[in-house]
Amino acid sequence: VQLQASGGGLVQAGGSLRLSCAASGFYLDYYAIGWFRQAPGKEREGVSCISSSSSSTYYVDSVKGRFTISRDNAKNTVYLQMNSLKPEDTAVYYCAASLICKVVAGRPDGMDYWGKGTQVTVSS
User: Fold this and answer.
1) β-strand pairing of 2-6 with 91-98
2) Digits of tens for pLDDT over the chain (124 positions)?
3) Which of 85, 83, 93, 114 is nearest to 47 (CA)?
4) Residue 79, Cα to own-chain centre: how many angstroms?
5) How many angstroms separate the CA atoms of 116 and 30, rounded?
6) What is d(CA 102, CA 33) in angstroms, rounded to the nearest whole number?
7) Rounded to an integer, what distance in angstroms lies between the CA atom of residue 30 and that of residue 86?
8) With helix as H, strand as E and coil as C, how does 26-59 read?
9) Residue 73 in 3-state DSSP?
C-alpha cells in the first residue's frame, strides 16, 4: 500500500492549491481517505476525510467552507481543494487511508496507511 501526496507549493494568502493523493499497489475505492497536516513544532492534525463511497465527508472546523475533499476512483486519486488559504494553513500535508473515516473530537484520526507529505506554504 503506497500513497503519495502532491500539489503543494508556495502561495500567497487568499490563494488556492489543489492537493492530490495517488495510490499505487491497491485500489483507493475500498478505502476512506483522510488529509492531515503537521506544522513546524506542532502535532499532526486531521484536516478532512472522505468515505470510500464519497457519501460522507468530514472537515476540521478551521477549514470548513474553504477546503473541499473529493475523489475520482477511476483515477485512483483523492483531492483536497484548498481555497482562501491562510498563513496558519502552512504545514506538510499527508494523505492516509483506512477502511472508514474515524473522527475524534471533530477531527479525522486513526488512519492505517500513510503516504509521504507535500509542503504547503502560505505567505502573508
Assistant:
1) unpaired
2) 789 999 999 999 999 999 999 988 888 889 999 999 999 999 999 999 999 999 999 999 999 999 999 999 889 999 999 999 999 999 999 999 999 999 888 888 889 999 999 999 999 9
3) 93
4) 7
5) 20
6) 10
7) 33
8) CCHHHCEEEEEEECCCCCCEEEEEECCCCCCEEE
9) helix
